Amino acid sequence: MMKSLQSTTTLHNGIQMPWFGLGVFKVEEGAELVNAVRTAIVNGYRSIDTAAIYGNEQGVGQGIREGLAETGLTREDIFVTSKVWNADHGYDAARAAYETSLNKLGLDYLDLYLIHWPVKGKYKETWRALESLYREGRVKAIGVSNFQIHHLDDLMGDAQVKPMVNQVELHPYLIQEDLLAYSKRQGIQLEAWSPLMQGQLLDHPLLQEIAGKHEKSVAQIILRWDLQRGIVTIPKSTKEHRISGNADVFDFELTDSEMARISGLNQNRRVGPNPDNFDF
């Protein structure tokens, strides 16, 4: 059950992953980043999501260490995700990239390591590298990011280990209904990046109306909608009041009618690149 920030979903290999975490996309190295990660942990967050390409793994690691010191928690209490970038696809390159990420973070393992984008013709070799890290016990869980159904079908045609997680752009204008149904059938946990559509939905009248009924913010309504659909969510913020406010979503429930109305906002509209035609 989702009762608190520490509530977890069980991935198909038995690993517990928090339903709610902090994303740090576009947060640069420096005091603001370190403070955001530390603040999140002090405020009860147990999951931090970064990536090699964000260029901030060192600050994330520092923030984790400060948060653990302040709370008395141990490394095992925190779920840390990073991702292999497009320039590091391939068996040897991906394994080397994993070591680089660990060194920058100052950790000796990751809880979840993802392929960041489905680079055509390359992600299967990279997946073999992730499988080897997983089999060696170097990483607790492995998965993908920005994979569409056809990418997953293609990957799993040769895979020995099924991805545990798929992290994709997902918000009320891009509800990913087909991918969610597919993921549930396959036992792959879906995770939302940019769940608040980079703030573009915060003044939407329907969401404001539902927020008013529950005496919650629009952000809290959207994040609750994610959770009730069975989707892990990782909103990004660097401000303490937002970090704690975003997470205040465990004391109310949206009705079936409200859930349907929010899903009805879908326009299949993205703020990020399309996984079928990105060029980086």
From TrEMBL:
**A Pfam family reported for this protein in Swiss-Prot or TrEMBL:** Aldo_ket_red
InterPro entries cross-referenced by the UniProt entry: AKR, AKR5G, Aldo/ket_reductase_CS, NAD(P)_OxRdtase_dom_sf, NADP_OxRdtase_dom
Q: Which residue ranges run through the membrane?
A: none
Q: Which CDD domains match?
A: AKR_AKR5G1-3
Q: Where on the tree of life does the source sit, at the highest rank?
A: Bacteria
Instruction: Name the active site residues.
Output: 54
Keywords, comma-separated and alphabetical: Oxidoreductase
User: One GO MF term, please?
Assistant: oxidoreductase activity
User: What residues does the record give for site: Lowers pKa of active site Tyr?
Assistant: 83
Q: Which residues take part in binding substrate?
A: 116
- The answer to whether keyword Transmembrane applies is no
Q: Which residues form the NADP-dependent oxidoreductase domain?
A: 31-266
What family, per the record?
A: Belongs to the aldo/keto reductase family.
Q: Which PANTHER family match?
A: 2,5-DIKETO-D-GLUCONIC ACID REDUCTASE
Name of the protein in question: Oxidoreductase YtbE
Q: Which organism is it from?
A: Paenibacillus nasutitermitis
